[in-house]
Amino acid sequence: MHPMTPAPYRVRSRRPDRADTVTLALRPVAGPCPPFLPGQFTMIYAPGVGEIAVSISGRARSGGYVQTIRAVGAVSGALCRTRPGDVVGVRGPYGTAWDLPSAEGLDVVVAAGGLGLAPLRPVIRELAAHGSRYGRISLIVGTRTPATLIYPGELARWRDRHGIDVQVTVDHPDLAWKGRVGLVTRLIDRIVFEPRRTFAFVCGPEVMMQASAAELVRRGVAAGRVMLSVERNMKCGVGRCGHCQLGPLLTCLDGPVLSYERAAGLLAVREL
After folding, report:
1. Which residue of 202, 229, 267, 270 sits 20 to 30 Å from the alpha carbon of 248, by its own alpha carbon?
2. What's the CATH code, domain 7-94?
3. Domain limits of the chain?
4. Given the DSSP bridges, would you call strands 21-28 and 7-18 parallel, antiparallel or unpaired?
5. What residues form the annotated binding site?
6. Which segments constitute the FAD-binding FR-type domain (predicted)?
């Protein structure tokens, strides 16, 4: 099959997460589902509308992909409106992965902003399943409002069943909110880790990633041990179109997962 030709995948299940966000389980119409690594993405085609890059949030029980999508445009909106039984197109998986093997034996900090929790979900599930391989595990999550928080049930399970230190903050609380309020970087003060023996995974809006990574490095975490998931406007996913260029890098090939050591200088350049 030509690399730009999507394979047909059927929507096996659809779970509304929030008013504008759904989680889909997708399975190939024919043949096995290609394996993926945490941090990789696929290009998903909404028939007659277009194609977008979407991070893989996990493996479905049916053997396909779990992918969480927020309706922010024509393509994502069309994908969010799909129902079980509908068919979409999928290419991939593509891109670099979260470096979980390098985190073994170290404290782990996972920092997520908004929908950035979705690409980190496979990392957290791995940490929860094999916690004995790692030191202290902390998950800090920031979101705009309580209503925009995704995976609340899983956050509770990771905390209560797997002993992960889960801390959540919101920018704008409602009357029922009893948790923290403020920037996710403030939660770094509330978790326990040994900076020189820590590995971090960070995903969210770019300004949040830069601030979180810089704060972790300021506290002594090596920049090469802070991993970010960098987004640009991916069109082809295979390094042909150049739309996702970040300086000398193509984020669909060299990313999306990059170390802060490699990405810091590029992210500091305005509108690069």
Report:
1. 202
2. 2.40.30.10
3. 7-94, 101-268
4. antiparallel
5. 236, 241, 244, 252
6. 4-100
